[in-house]
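Dataset card, provenance and construction

Sequences and ligand SMILES were collected as paired inputs. For each pair, a complete structure of the chain with the small molecule in place was predicted and serialized as structure tokens. The example below shows a pair involving zinc ion. Curators did not alter the output after generation; any descriptive sentences attached to a record were derived from the structure itself.
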Amino acid sequence: MLTMEQIQKKSLNRLVGLNPVFKIVMEKLIERCYARGVWIVITQGFRTYAEQDELYAQGRNGDKRPKVTKARGGYSNHNFGFAADFALLLRDGRTVSWDTLKDDDKDSLPDWSEVVEEVKKLGLEWGGDWRSFKDMPHLQMVFGITTAQFRAGKHPTQAQLNAALAKFNKLEDEPMTAEEKAAFKALQNTVQKQADRIKTLETTAKQPKVPAWAEQACINAKAVGVLDTANDGSYDFYRMVTLLDRAGVFKRGGVA
Ligand SMILES: [Zn+2]
């Protein structure tokens, strides 16, 4: 079982070069997935144009490897720090998986779809939603900016970035969590109240000395060896002794 910190650490290198806001959202995604039992790693983050061109060359111009991208340098959101790819990290803490049907946390939900659920909550765009070419591991946040606009130097406004941050800060206080917190607080109060009440009952019920109305009954009970000490009894205890005495239980020899 890896800790959240250990899981985060595995993606650290891939988060370098990303836009700071997008990076925070990625870290948040890893955290939220971990909280529901799904471990993920970021396998691809920022790419330079040169790195993108290298990827583009795979499977083209005589290269025998399979094609991995449709985008050359400057045509992928990875080139502008607003895209990342994820994969599942299996429970051995080493194996990376792209199996979209895997259910490693055994909750009958494919882990991949659990990640996508969190992706949407965070306001990210998922490549699996694309119609022409589904890119299942791909995540991005582009604020409506096209790669052509990015190439021309356009950036999201501070207001847009703030809105993205506000969106996930709001998730921190999402209704479910607030409700759970309130329920927990109420439970704590109830337990404390019950503890106080029992304490009060105990102190008030315990009689400092044998009540006058029970004295004779206690003497009678002692006389027949039923009672060793009459001290420190509760109200109910003295009441019971008195009732038994009235019933004639402690009469010596049992004869009237
Ligand atoms: Zn991608």
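Derived descriptions for this record:
Residues 44, 78, 83, 85, 135, 138 surround zinc ion (CB under 6 Å).
The longest helix spans residues 175-205.
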